[in-house]
Design brief:
The chain is an all-alpha fold. It has one domain. The chain is built from 6 helices and no strands. Helix 3 runs antiparallel to helix 4.
């Protein structure tokens, strides 16, 4: 992440760490046996990042944010995305295609990062969302050929992309700001 706001930077690393755990966790719904330990390690790394940089957010809570004066817009953006993700999942469930829910939610999350790039004035988030969308489109043919939940591939794709982004962002944070606490 490239921002002048240490609190936003720490928050993004912590949040992406938490979401790394969530996506790797969803990927554990029905993984091949040989992937399970990797998904667990990825989840654990996400928790560590969330804890370390979550504390960094706590210690910098009174500092500025790129969202100052735009919290309402951010809230509307997130609410709209959650509604679209939920509505899509409801449609998939009604069509007895619930195995596609992970793919659908991941696509909404990737698009969310593109919108968030404008709010935070950080184009690295748009790049992340773009990489995720390309990866989701790339795995779609393989997902169509199986009858297992899409989370089998989508969880690792999203978890890995978030973990790599968070680790790179943490390195930038450490080099520019110092320790998160």
């Amino acid at each position: 992440m490239f921002t002048e706001f240490a609190r936003d930077h720490a928050f993004t690393i912590a949040w992406f760490g938490l979401m790394t755990m969530v996506w790797f966790g969803w990927g554990q719904e029905d993984p091949p046996q040989r992937w399970r330990w990797r998904l667990g390690v990825g989840s654990a790394l996400g928790v560590v990042l969330a804890g370390l940089f979550g504390y960094g957010v706590f210690t910098r809570w009174d500092e500025g944010s790129a969202l100052e004066g735009r919290y309402g817009l951010f809230g509307i953006l997130v609410l709209l995305e959650v509604a679209v993700a939920g509505a899509g999942c409801l449609v998939l469930w009604r069509r007895q295609q619930s195995r596609w829910m992970a793919w659908w939610v991941a696509a909404i999350v990737a698009v969310h990062f593109i919108g968030l790039a404008f709010l935070l004035n950080d184009w690295s988030l748009a790049a992340l969302g773009g990489v995720q969308l390309v990866a989701l489109i790339a795995v779609r043919p393989r997902l169509k050929s199986g009858d297992w939940p899409t989370s089998r591939l989508v969880g690792p794709v999203m978890g890995t992309s978030l973990l790599v982004f968070a680790l790179l962002s943490a390195a930038i944070f450490l080099a520019g700001v110092g320790l998160p606490w």
